[in-house]
Amino acid sequence: QLTNGVGTYQWMAPEVICGTDYSVAADIYSFGVLLSEFSTHKVPYADVLHPTHGRPVTQQYVMTQVTQGLLQPTFAAVGVPSWVREIALQCLQTDPTLRPTAAQLT
């Protein structure tokens, strides 16, 4: 399958980072990340600083935190309708079985 492990880590679902089979639920996760990017106009996780030393985090740090459900993309503090943020947060569930289907997003 061509989609296994393919992608840019900022948009990859936790289960894809962990090496499990790619699914439609992974696309839903990526959609949630995209909504975050539309909100902030920045690459996901670009604003994340390491809690210990305050410097930008590494790719490995982001992937580890995402797979453990400890980090999600951020959203602008203002200007984002609450319904957009709510949909995005549903899409960004760490557990793929908790994410909505594409039909549920319409």
From TrEMBL:
InterPro entries: Kinase-like_dom_sf (IPR011009), Prot_kinase_dom (IPR000719), Ser/Thr_Kinases-Pseudokinases (IPR051681). It holds the Pfam family Pkinase. Residues 1-106 form the Protein kinase domain. SUPFAM superfamilies: Protein kinase-like (PK-like). GO terms for molecular function: ATP binding; protein serine/threonine kinase activity. PANTHER family: PROTEIN KINASE DOMAIN-CONTAINING PROTEIN (PTHR44329:SF214), SERINE/THREONINE-PROTEIN KINASE TNNI3K-RELATED (PTHR44329). This is Protein kinase domain-containing protein. It comes from Saprolegnia parasitica (strain CBS 223.65).
